[in-house]
Specification:
The protein is an alpha/beta fold. The protein folds into three domains: 47 residues, Transferase, Pyrimidine Nucleoside Phosphorylase, Chain A, domain 3 (Up-down Bundle), CATH 1.20.970; 246 residues, Nucleoside phosphorylase/phosphoribosyltransferase catalytic domain (Pyrimidine Nucleoside Phosphorylase, Chain A, domain 2); 90 residues, Pyrimidine nucleoside phosphorylase-like, C-terminal domain (Aldehyde Oxidoreductase, domain 3, Alpha-Beta Complex), CATH 3.90.1170.30. The longest helix is centred in the middle third of the chain and has 18 residues. The protein is globular. The relative contact order is 0.14. The structure holds uracil. Uracil binds next to helix 9.
């Protein structure tokens, strides 16, 4: 085989065979096919797309580039959950202990902040002492003991994704449905759970900005699951504004804890119940959606889910006291409100812009290697449809350095559009693909 011929084939819109895709991916990971040829192939895929057979073949070739996790030592049905990334999306920190407290077994491998979106590992590491580097043995033992664990992914899992993602980042080929779908699903398949529930975000704070794009991504990922025989369900949910009211690592952990205590924002609670119900269904822990939801609401009301979070935090070396006393989380010394410049109703909140504002405050890694300030972030006071008077706070900025405030405040002001007419937010859950 020659890479040149395969690039030309894809460029001309023909379908590549599974062995051709495997040869290209394997060759790239071993250093036998140069990056410029893979870059050209990625661009051809970007314009020509991939059939569902090709996308599944690419995903499996990526899985085979490294090790896979064997979760057969876990007693009970394992279900994984993954979000395509958003702003203020602390769902996993609520959902994992919630679903675990209702009998689902969850060995979740999470990621770090990517672009303007936050990462669950960074959020959890704002809990003093908490470790996210768990060996496969530790992960399995912890899930058998308390029902769940959230850990980082080892470098040996899907090395092809790391290489391909870096190349996509440099060649303007990140936002391609088959490339995102294979990237996400390769990591989920390698992580070994028997079923997968995906939260595909759509809107101003998501990689997919429109509903047709998000549906296409959801269908591509569910299609991969079908091709390889792994039960996969995708929920398409709105990211037209940040989820909940907190953006930033410790602030989001605090909001997740409050949600488990029944004091959290309604949109976050609702999304966790919708995704959690899907997890219970695919795990065979409930006969139908209504029973699944009722089981989850009961676990929340009884405090079971909160106790499971405390157990997970303690098992991973963290201070479980943050569950009873979230004020023990890191807190920024500077807290400054940003006031509205006009009177009216909040007509739009650009979630991606708020994500960038949080990074300017220190909550993310603009250069990839920078340290995160766990206390930095934004607390949102006005969301879509809320009335506001001139000068009233839209958000409060949390920072450790005063010089970070002005650029972040400018981003926040630009992110808000205050209008005359009331505009309530649209539905949170927009579609489900099975
Ligand atoms: N998240 C991933 O893991 N991969 C992508 O390509 C995009 C978002």
């Amino acid at each position: 085989m020659r890479a040149y011929d395969l690039i030309k084939k894809k460029r001309n819109g023909e379908e590549l065979a599974a062995e051709e895709i495997a040869w290209l991916v394997g060759g790239y990971v071993r250093g036998e096919v140069p990056a410029e040829q893979i870059a050209a192939l990625l661009m051809a895929v970007y314009f020509r797309g991939m059939s569902s057979r090709e996308t599944a073949a690419l995903t499996l070739a990526m899985v085979r580039s490294g090790e896979t996790l064997d979760l057969s030592g876990i007693r009970g049905r394992t279900v994984d959950k993954h979000s395509t990334g958003g702003v203020g999306d602390k769902t996993s920190i609520v959902l994992v202990p919630l679903a675990a407290s209702a009998g689902v077994r969850i060995a979740k491998l999470s990621g770090r902040a990517l672009g303007h979106t936050g990462g669950t590992l960074d959020k959890l590491e704002s809990i003093p002492g908490l470790r996210t580097e768990l060996s496969p043995r530790e992960l399995i033992d912890q899930v058998n003991r308390i029902g769940c664990a959230i850990a980082g992914q080892s470098a040996q899992l899907v090395p092809a994704d790391k290489l391909l993602y870096a190349l996509r980042d440099r060649t303007a080929t990140v936002d391609s449905v088959p490339l995102i779908a294979s990237s996400v699903m390769s990591k989920k398949l390698a992580a070994g759970s028997s079923a997968i529930v995906l939260d595909v975000k759509v809107g101003s704070g998501a990689f997919m900005k429109t509903l047709p794009e998000a549906r296409a991504l959801a269908e591509a990922m569910v299609g991969i699951g079908r091709e390889v025989g792994r039960r996969t369900v995708a929920v398409v949910s709105s990211m037209e504004q940040p989820l909940g009211r907190a953006v930033g690592n410790a602030l989001e952990v605090e909001e997740a804890v409050r949600t488990l205590r029944g004091e959290g924002p309604e949109d976050l609670r609702e999304l966790c119940l919708a995704l959690g119900a899907r997890m219970l269904l695919v795990a065979g822990r409930a006969p139908d959606a209504a029973a699944a939801r009722a089981a989850l609401e009961e676990r929340l009301a009884r405090g079971d889910a909160l106790r499971t979070l405390a157990e997970m935090v303690a098992a991973q070396g963290g201070d479980p006291g943050v569950v009873a006393h979230p004020e023990r989380l890191p807190r920024a010394p500077i807290q400054e409100p940003v006031g509205a410049e006009a009177e009216g109703t909040v007509a739009a909140v650009d979630a991606e812009a708020l994500g960038h504002a949080a990074i300017l405050l220190g909550a993310g890694r603009p250069r990839g290697d920078e340290r995160i300030d766990p206390a930095a972030g934004i607390v949102i006071h006005r969301k879509l449809g809320d009335p506001v008077r001139r000068g009233e706070p839209l958000v409060t900025l949390h920072a450790s350095q005063a010089e970070r405030l002005a650029p972040a405040a400018a981003r926040v002001r630009a992110a808000y559009r205050i209008g005359r007419d009331a505009r309530a937010p649209g539905p949170l859950v927009l579609d489900t693909v099975e």
